Amino acid sequence: MRSNLLKFKRSPHKIPHKAIALATVLFLIGACLIIIGSLLLAGYINKGGADRPVPVLIIGILVFLPGFYHLYIASYASKGYRVYSYDDIPDFHD
């Protein structure tokens, strides 16, 4: 019985390093834009008109969310959770 279980052992998945690096960059840029947009909205930074903080916040959220999502998947895949896999992260095929 034990020999049958060893036959179907999963092969190790290839870690998409480029995609994880891009997700990290998107996460950091999005977080910076959200912080800057929040400071603009609160009035701590007074550069430009009153219509400036909303686009900065929207762009920050749109950049932050994919980066956060892919880093979330990568972190749980590295911990070995069965539900999460590196296959869920899009890879750049060289």
Observed structural traits:
0% strand; golgi apparatus; 94 residues; single chain; mainly alpha; 3 helices
Describe what you observe in this structure.
- With 94 residues, the protein is mostly helical.
- The protein has one domain (15-83).
- It has 3 helices and no strands.
- The protein is elongated, with a radius of gyration of 20 Å.
- The chain starts with a helix and ends in a 15-residue tail after the last helix.
- 17% of the residues are buried.
Brief summary of the model shown:
By secondary structure, the protein is an all-alpha fold. The protein is built from three helices and no strands.
> What is the alpha-carbon Rg in Å?
20 Å
**What is the 3D shape?**
elongated
| Average pLDDT reading | 85
Major beta sheet, specifics?
none
Q: Catalogue the unreliable spans.
A: none
How many domains make up the coordinates?
1
Query: With helices defined by DSSP (H or I, 4 residues minimum), what is the helix count?
Result: 3
Overall helicity: 55-70%
Q: How much of the sequence is in beta strands?
A: under 5%
What is the N-to-C succession of helices and strands? HHH
Structural class: mainly alpha
| Cα separation of the termini | 41 Å
Extended strand count = 0
